[in-house]
Design brief:
- The protein is an alpha/beta fold.
- It folds into two domains: 196 residues, P-loop containing nucleotide triphosphate hydrolases (Rossmann fold, 3-Layer(aba) Sandwich); 88 residues.
- It is built from 13 helices and 13 strands.
- The strands form two sheets. It has a nine-stranded mixed beta sheet, sandwiched between helices. Strands 10-9-11-12 form a four-stranded parallel beta sheet, with helices on both faces.
- Helix 7 links the parallel strand 7 and strand 8.
- The protein is globular, with a radius of gyration of 19 Å.
- The N and C termini lie far apart (41 Å).
Length: 324
């Protein structure tokens, strides 16, 4: 699904206002679900969520949180629904056995670093994770009430914030913002921008600033080059911003819906256009995970990014009581 453009217009557009009654109904149902008490498992469960539909940086944040836990001597295990994949689970992802079509793209990225469980049933997945490690890190699932969370981070993009501030389908919010903040322990604002900070500062929760940093070697291969960039993520514009920030010259930017699986004709078009105009093909880690051993996957450059907290000690201080 590609998020409608009017979701990000402030103040709300005519289309958003027309859909506002439906958004209000969605908001009441979602707020009620957030109040439900979930099932507890034998190990701490830490959740990285997003108040809106679409990408804000959950997976890089989950990876950064797991890295902090690992440096603290813990054994984190990722838990994800495996969006876009066919596996029901619960199953531990094996990158040598499971295909991207089975696990989804995010699970493959997570499994490249630490053990990752895919499960449509979050409780069953967490129970399996508890047999593998001593702390569960959930990538998404904040609005799912089935599993109790011991610690939750809400991730907000610094530039986009929460769009027009309305609930689906009038806007991007998955539930009323106040109800989501009430269930969160801290808010992570990613990138440079005031809108995200304005939203986060109204949360009455600790606010942590962070930024996405491109892997230096990959960035060096792209800097100063004319590129054809393509991405099927929640907010492809964020990928474009990252490319421009490192000095890439984007001649063509092709945006696909989140988790989109490219057809043969779409891949052929990208390869042919890049060759015709002598452009470097560049995409995201999530997209390359879906491409597998395709010709496009072999010729496209990847720009890996990692999340860096401005004050990681502040996050460590919030997490340590849960671990004790």
């Amino acid at each position: 699904m590609r998020a409608p453009g009017f979701w990000w217009q402030r103040p709300p557009s005519a289309a958003a206002r027309m859909l506002k009654p439906f958004g209000a109904l969605y908001a009441r149902v979602a707020a009620a679900r957030l109040k439900a008490e979930g099932v507890h498992v034998p190990v701490p469960v830490m959740c990285v969520g997003n108040p809106i539909a679409g990408g804000a940086g959950k997976t890089p944040t989950a990876l950064a949180l797991a890295g902090l836990l690992r440096r603290a001597g813990r054994q984190p295990v990722f838990l994800t629904r495996g969006y876009g994949g066919t596996l029901e689970g619960p199953v531990r992802v094996d990158r040598d056995v499971h295909t991207p079509a089975e696990t989804g793209d995010e699970a493959r990225l997570l499994a490249a670093v630490w053990p990752c469980i895919v499960a449509k049933d979050r409780v069953a997945g967490a129970r399996l994770a508890a047999t593998t490690g001593d702390v569960v890190v959930m990538d998404d699932g904040f609005q799912n009430p089935s599993l109790a969370k011991d610690f939750s981070l809400l991730v907000i993009d610094a530039v986009d914030g929460v769009g027009n501030g309305l609930c689906i389908p009038a806007g991007p919010l998955r539930a009323p913002l106040a109800a989501q903040f009430a269930r969160a322990d801290a808010v992570v604002v990613i990138g440079d921008g005031e809108e995200g900070m304005r939203v986060a500062q109204g949360s009455a929760r600790p606010v942590l600033r962070a930024r996405l940093v491109a892997e230096p070697g990959a960035a060096a291969r792209v800097t100063g080059r004319k590129v054809l960039a393509f991405a099927g993520i929640g907010r492809p514009q964020k990928f474009a911003r990252t490319l421009r920030d490192i000095g890439a010259d984007i001649v063509r930017m092709v945006e696909f819906p989140d988790h989109h699986v490219l057809t043969e004709s779409e891949m052929d078009d990208l390869i042919a256009d890049a060759a015709r105009r002598d452009l470097l093909l560049v995409t995201t880690e999530k997209d390359i995970a879906r491409l597998g051993g395709t010709r496009l996957g072999m010729v496209a450059q990847t720009l890996p990014v990692r999340l860096v907290f401005e004050e990681e000690t502040a996050l460590a201080a919030l997490v340590s009581p849960i671990l004790r």
